Amino acid sequence: RKEVEQDPGPFNVPEGATVAFNCTYSNSASQSFFWYRQDCRKEPKLLMSVYSSGNEDGRFTAQLNRASQYISLLIRDSKLSDSATYLCVVNSFGGYNKLIFGAGTRLAVHP
Amino acid sequence: GAVVSQHPSWVICKSGTSVKIECRSLDFQATTMFWYRQFPKQSLMLMATSNEGSKATYEQGVEKDKFLINHASLTLSTLTVTSAHPEDSSFYICSATPYGDSRSYNEQFFGPGTRLTVL
């Protein structure tokens, strides 16, 4: 079983749509959780950290369920510029801030 | 702030040659840097953790004699792919964790990546 698993995608949605990404992780000792965004042939960029209480940043909402070891990302009112691959990332509590990346879910927003 | 650079951004080399990739933290010091590899349509895979002044810690399945890592200062880590072969062609990305920053345990700052093509 992979340490971090995501919806395989791709998600093709029209502008303005709401889209949700899911992610599960296997290590119950994980401490920190993130969503990164990666554009084609570029480095990943931090989109947002994910907190147990849930957090929102504009059109983006992240949720964490520690009991189920489940993380989600909701994007409202999708824009063309949201097209990218979204990576679910978990900190593997191994002493060196080791990040474990999911395989990513590709989002394509069309006009 | 928190900018990480990599050099070169891309490199093409012949099979059997060695290639050195530099990762620099430009506006902060980094005791720990990480090297990742990403094959097409796959996610980032951690290769090794580089610690200033000590030996790197390699992930399972990564050959330490093939991927030499040196972290000689708080702002520079290098990855040398020795005797590169076509299967080493990949996107190599480094990241760095700021030293002494309270948020440092949680956030890594990524370099722009180096695309290696071995002919």
Can you summarize this structure?
The complex is a heterodimer of chains A (111) and B (119). Chain A is an all-beta fold.
Q: What is the gyration radius of chain B calculated from CA atoms?
A: 14 Å
**What's the average pLDDT of chain A?**
91
Helix content of chain B: under 10%
Mean pLDDT of chain B: 89
Profile the largest sheet of chain B.
7 strands, mixed
Give the CA-CA distance, first to last residue of chain B.
37 Å
Low-confidence stretches of chain B: none
Helix/strand/pairing category of chain B: mainly beta
Helical segment count of chain A: 0
How many DSSP helices of chain B?
A: 0
List the helices and strands of chain A in order: EEEEEEEEEEE
Distance between the termini of chain A: 37 Å
Q: Which blocks of ≥5 consecutive residues of chain A have pLDDT under 50?
A: none
* Beta-strand content estimate of chain A: over 45%
Major β-sheet annotation of chain A = 6 strands, mixed
Topology:
The complex is a heterodimer of chains A (about 110) and B (about 120).
Chain A: E1 4-6, E2 11-14, E3 19-25, E4 33-38, E5 44-50, E6 55-57, E7 60-65, E8 70-75, E9 84-92, E10 98-101, E11 105-110
Chain B: E1 4-7, E2 10-13, E3 19-25, E4 30-38, E5 45-51, E6 57-58, E7 67-73, E8 76-81, E9 90-98, E10 109-110, E11 114-118
Parallel strand pairs in B: 2-11
Antiparallel strand pairs in B: 1-3, 3-8, 4-5, 4-9, 5-6, 7-8, 9-10, 9-11
